[in-house]
Amino acid sequence: MAGNAPTASEYVVHHLTHLNNTGHAQKNIVDWSVINLDTMFYSLSIGLLTVFLLWLAARKATSGVPGRFQAIVELLVDMVADQAKGIVHSAESRRFVAPLALTVFVWIFLMNAMDLLPVDLLPRVWEWIYAAGGGDPHHAYQRVVATADLSATLGMSCGVLLLCLWYNVKIKGVSGWVHELFTAPFGAHPLLWPVNFAMQIIEFLAKTISHGMRLFGNMYAGELIFILIALLGSTATVFGFLGHVVAGTIWAIFHILIITLQAFIFMMLTLVYIGQAHEGH
Amino acid sequence: MNLNATLIAQLVVFFILGWFTMKFVWPPIVKALDERAKKIADGLAAADKAKADLVLAEKKVVEELRKARESAGDTRAAAEKQAAKLIDDARAEAARLIAKAREDAEAEAGAAAQRAKEALREQVAALAVAGAERILRKEINAQAHVELLANLKQELQ
Prior knowledge:
Structural class of chain B: mainly alpha
Radius of gyration of chain B: 61 Å
Distance between the termini of chain A: 57 Å
Structural class of chain A: mainly alpha
Number of helices of chain B: 2
Oligomer: heterodimer
Order of helices and strands of chain A: HEHHHHHHH
Transmembrane segments (chain B): 6-26
Number of strands of chain B: 1
Helix content of chain B: over 70%
Number of domains of chain B: 1
Subcellular location (chain B): Cell membrane; Endomembrane system
Number of domains of chain A: 1
Keywords (chain B): ATP synthesis, Cell membrane, CF(0), Coiled coil, Hydrogen ion transport, Ion transport, Membrane, Transmembrane, Transmembrane helix, Transport
Largest sheet of chain B: none
Largest interface: A-B, 55 and 34 residues
Shape of chain A: globular
Pfam family, one (chain B): ATP-synt_B
Coiled coil (chain B): 47-122
């Protein structure tokens, strides 16, 4: 860390503050007038990169001998198609749900993979750009892992919730679904209606919140550990340097598993929740 | 750990990317995969068929070879028979020719001997007459003794 070195606490807080449209950290827990520009930038660019890569493979897809790139994309498509077939028992729904799951998997994987970049690299570049533009680098916030932003992960899990509601209505009809809301899981007795309904609402809330929180929590914790490891290196002692190298290596290797696993889990839960919307209780 | 409008934006992006994949990515890749699966299945079926055809062809070859060998044997047997017959015929013809030649020769020899005998007989008769003339010192009338001479000729035969 150059210049007037921040304290460890300042360093961590600086790294965990989003670049948003207000220019300073968000004050309230929920504020719909704020939008995180860094999250949107990385999420959108990586999302576009995702569909561009997939489109690149799809454009040249032939039934002949596939190239390596086509083969890896086909592998992914085949994997997602198999999972979707086993979980969502409606060929018509799968026409949208399976491609969505594929996009989600690749997209989240790539967003998570941003965690493997050196933790100070892009934030420092942004500080330079910000300072070159005349700003105070202490207020040049930048978080590069979009999935470590709760708004982003909950945004996606709310998307899954909307799909669940849509398919519930589509498959069971409005009356069928309302009937299910009040009679499942405990039974059709009128006294049980409120209990059933409460359970159903809790279930939807729990599914959606845990879906978004799980990804967020894993990536946020991973990012924080990278920041702490970087702090260890910043002590500029032999121990700190070795600790930074060794711990950073081990954590990064372990994190390869986590970013893949979390992307896979998010995709699988997307399929599972939508699959459940197709089945009666 | 705050919630803000990013959530809404991310939700919208989520659906747009999903829609894009559904529209432009998924169908061509799945189509290619299905087509390749079909190609491979067809290829495997063709390979199986080719294998079965090969077995049939090999069987046919063996059968044809057997037939060819058989017919070659037949031909040879017929040729040998023909040759034997030709040799036999030739031998029989030769034997016939030899026999005929011998017969002819014998007949010739017989005729020559007969002719010699005839000549001798003539001469014997003449000699007998001449001898008798010498003995009798006179001429014998051959006319008068023609019967006697004929008898003598007869006896000499």
